[in-house]
Amino acid sequence: MQTHWKKLPSGDLGVVTAPVRASDNVERLLRALIFSGRLAPGDKLPNERDLAAQLGVSRPTARLALNSLHALGYLVVKIGSKGGYWVADVDSIKQHWKEWMETHRDQLEEMLDFRRWVELEIAARAAERRTAEDVAALEELGRGPTADRPSYVQWHIDLHDAIARAAHNRYLEQSAAVIRGELFVPVGFSVTRFPVEEAVALHRPLVAAICAGDRAAAVEAMTVHMARLDEPFRSGLE
Ligand SMILES: [Zn+2]
To answer: In this predicted model, what pLDDT tens digit does every residue of 121-154 receive, in sequence order?
Structure first.
């Protein structure tokens, strides 16, 4: 056994990247929540102490993430005893999303590729492994947004979460959550280009194939879905 610390290699580490700061992870998580609409424009964030406690990070880490998102324009701040951080308005969020995508343009194709692989694998596995419980959940969600679940964005998240769960592989499920956090289109961005009824209809063959246990049809339906879902990322950057 060696008695000295091993010196870390220096210089270009190739694909091995340096560990990110804890605040980067908090920032990424909050950005994903904002892009996905779970934190909506105008929502007030928990204060620094509560945010740190909820995420299991230190207060300085939570503060760094909040400061950074404020500097980037995702959050607005109000000073004073009733002060705190609020999610910025829809137009600011859209603008920042476009800028964020611009600066990550070189990664975009890799992210879209990765998402396609993960989602196609999820569709295939879900068709093979779905339980009666999964089928019941998927059939209910497959009907589209309802009176008690009116938000299209929330419905879409819930449906894809249910599909990912039906694949019964936690690593696959986690990969899907990570890549969706990176690629989410902010609320309201694509509504005018992609009517809700059309979006809901796009998911019907996918849900039906998974419930029927038809792997080939599930993969085919997810392929069609992914091609459609990639569009806003490409057109949004034009
Ligand atoms: Zn979808």
So the answer is: 999 999 999 999 999 999 999 988 887 767 777 7
Q: Does residue 76 contact residue 85 with C-beta atoms inside 8 Å?
A: yes
156 alpha carbon to ligand 1 midpoint, in Å? 6
Q: How far is the CA of 96 from the centre of ligand 1 (A)?
A: 23
Do the beta carbons of residue 163 and residue 189 sit within 8 Å?
no
CA of 222 to the centre of ligand 1 (A): 8
Burial of 87 (0-12, 13-18, 19+ CB in 10 A): buried
Ligand 1 centroid distance, CA of 157 (Å): 8
Query: For the segment 189-229, what is each residue's pLDDT rounded down to a tens digit?
Result: 554 456 778 888 999 999 999 999 999 999 999 999 988 87
CA of 163 to the centre of ligand 1 (A): 10
Q: What is the pLDDT of residues 173-191, one digit of tens each?
A: 988 887 876 776 665 555 4
| CA 225 – ligand 1 centroid, Å | 7
Query: Ligand 1 mean position to 66 CA, how many Å?
Result: 30
d(CA 103, CA 133): 42
Q: Count of alpha carbons within 13 Å of 84, Cβ hemisphere only?
A: 14
Which domains are seen in the chain, by residue range? 22-94 (1.10.10.10), 104-235 (1.20.120.530)
Which pLDDT band holds residue 80 (cuts at 50, 70, 90)? confident
Say if CB 166 and CB 131 are below 8 A apart: yes
* Alpha carbons 74 and 151: distance in angstroms, whole number: 21
